[in-house]
Amino acid sequence: MTKTIPPETQQRALELHDILNRANYQYYVLDAPELPDAEYDRCLRELQALEKEYPQLISSDSPTQRVGAEPLAAFTQIRHEMPMLSLDNAFSDEELEDFDRRIRDRLNSSDPVEYACEPKLDGIAVSLLYRDGILERAATRGDGTVGEDITQNVRTIYSVPLKLLADDVPAVLEVRGEIYMPKAGFAALNEKAQKAGEKGFVNPRNAAAGSLRQLDSRITAQRPLELCVYSVGLVQGGDLPERHTEILEQLNRWGFRINSEMAVAENIQACIDYYRRLGEKRTQLAYDIDGIVFKVNSIALQKRLGFVARAPRWATAYKFPAQEEMTELLDVEFQVGRTGAVTPVARLQPVFVGGVTVSNATLHNRDEIERLGVKIGDTVIIRRAGDVIPQVVSVVDSRRPADAREIEFPSHCPVCDSPVEASPGEAVARCSGGLICSAQRKQAIKHFASRKAMDIDGLGDKLVEQLVDEGLLKSVSGLYHLSLEPLVTLERMGEKSAQNLLDALERSKATTLPKFLYALGIREVGEATARNLARHFGQLEKLMHADTEALQQVEDVGPVVAHYVAEFFEQPHNLEEVAALQQAGVHWEDEVQELGAQPLAGQTWVLTGKLETLSRSEAKDYLQRLGAKVAGSVSANTHTVVAGPGAGSKLNKARELDLPVLDEEGLMAMLRTQGIEI
Ligand code: IVH
């Protein structure tokens, strides 16, 4: 026996439908949420509870029905009453102008034609049928005449209204649009797949297609899909505006997401401008687009123009250069970086992709080669989006030739022949040759010369390569033995620039210990670590003799960094280089020597509130120089708390624990008595 629903419960359920539908619309369609999450959850739970008590309340358009349903055995076929057409393409400005000319010829008019401009989303075309404002059925395009019923899957997508947001909608309204996966959702989905040891999807379009093809809609419900609508199909029992862009705006008011980049162009020149503008913005958009669709905006003119074969005469898609192309993997070479990392680089049959000709792409490391399962001779898909370096995204298995070769990771460095070593747990393999390896040497010299290191003006990457390749430069210290004559023999090097370089080298000799340490290019020693090391040890000599235990006393230095530093100063050729650099005149002032002069060693200080004379990082720096640790929270182990205006809970805690508290003046006085000049 089903219980009769009290009228006020019925009423409340409808109210909750409205609240939740509107909240979904604001959140998923307008990107402008108004209802707080907690309130949304409360309403949803209330509705779920009502539906549990009175199951007759559950309707197909209830906001609770978005979680997916029992799996289907197969998709049913659906015949589109109005065929779903495709679009003609244009690939150049001229072809777009031809499109416009054909239209004006056919209309027998020389007046400019107004166009609607919309990004061409790269997803899956769908048709949604609403009867009396309620979603009845969703179908794929299929062959344009017959598609598949994917209603259960589409229902799980929050930007698909289950019920339209107005009463004045046509009795029958078929809306068409694209279901797609935004780039961020795609990346997150693939990351999850990778962690689970699964292969993931090649691109957002495949991910969207795969998600919609699920017989189990509960899986679709987990996928970050969105709908954007771009036209109407069958419309009965109601009228729509007379211009395409106005129809879409009407659809937007009824509950559908439309593309926020949609625009009206007064003539074909404005269309070309729009195409250029969006082309520049393409990589910043949250979703993939593969071109711009231009449509004659007047519906009356659309009707006059009609169709040819499977495409309308009144619309065209002006495609962007493809971001993915197929080509052949000719070979794999191995490049060696500054730290010896050996990176596999794909040599490709040149292919035009993303607007440029690509003949190399990175394969990252051994794991990536394994993940792709790629062999030499394979046909691969290359992706180049924006300025991102070209990637190999997948292998076209069906095109593998019989003589495809395994990619062999070298056991010896391709540049210097030293053994290549892979540390366990690390995806990267490294050449063990250190500075013997000319590839590492080039990178090491480039790093040494860079702005944050020795800051050698005019010593760019190209010049370093030239100098090493010509045999003029064998080591970092060799820089300081360069002379004018051999320099001017280099290509593109006049006497003036050679002299400028020598002057810059001379200037660079006066440096600081942190910069010098950073310039040495010790693994994992970036600017900040170099600074900490310099401050802690004060003198290079002391640092060079420190063992890993002593090194780990330094702020932010753990066992790994300590190991790299100690190892660096154990290698004779590194010691020789350091000595050679000093002999050549590289010099610096010792840092304020801290060891033995660390009156605050063993103490933990906490800074809270606003400091007015010192910046917080200066105060922290000074305290650390004196040997104190600076922590973020107050505990019984805290030695002193420095509290400025606005201090709150930390100061209260200090008082509770009866800890010494200083204000900023007190801190400065203490620092001065310790010999710090401020
Ligand atoms: S209009 C009769 N507008 O592109 C016109 N299509 O090659 C029908 N597409 O299957 C399409 N964004 O899936 C139109 N703003 C847009 C579009 C768009 C993507 C897809 C659609 C269609 C294909 C045509």
Q: List low-pLDDT spans.
A: none
Bound molecules: 2-(butylsulfanyl)adenosine
Broad structural category: alpha+beta
User: Termini distance?
Assistant: 85 Å
Taking the sheet with the most strands, its summary is: 7 strands, antiparallel
Strands, count? 24
Question: Which percent range describes the beta-strand content?
Answer: 15-25%
The overall pLDDT average reads 92
What share of residues is helical? 25-40%
Number of helices: 24
Rg computed from alpha carbons, rounded to a whole number of angstroms: 34 Å
| Basic shape | globular
Topology:
Elements: H1 7-29, H2 37-53, E1 77-79, E2 88-90, H3 93-106, E3 115-121, E4 124-131, E5 134-140, E6 146-148, H4 151-155, E7 172-180, H5 183-195, H6 204-212, H7 217-220, E8 226-236, H8 244-254, E9 263-265, H9 268-281, E10 289-296, H10 299-305, E11 307-308, E12 311-312, E13 315-319, E14 324-336, E15 341-353, E16 356-362, H11 366-372, E17 379-383, E18 391-395, E19 420-422, E20 429-431, H12 438-449, H13 461-469, H14 484-488, H15 495-508, H16 513-519, H17 527-537, H18 540-545, H19 548-551, H20 559-568, H21 572-583, E21 604-608, H22 616-625, E22 629-631, E23 640-643, H23 649-656, E24 661-662, H24 664-673
Parallel strand pairs: 2-13, 21-22, 21-23, 23-24
Antiparallel strand pairs: 1-6, 3-9, 3-10, 4-5, 4-7, 7-8, 10-13, 11-12, 14-15, 14-17, 15-16, 15-20, 17-18, 19-20
Bound molecules: 2-(butylsulfanyl)adenosine.
Active site: 120
Binding site for Zn(2+): 413, 416, 437
Binding site for NAD(+): 37-41, 86-87, 118, 141, 178, 295, 319
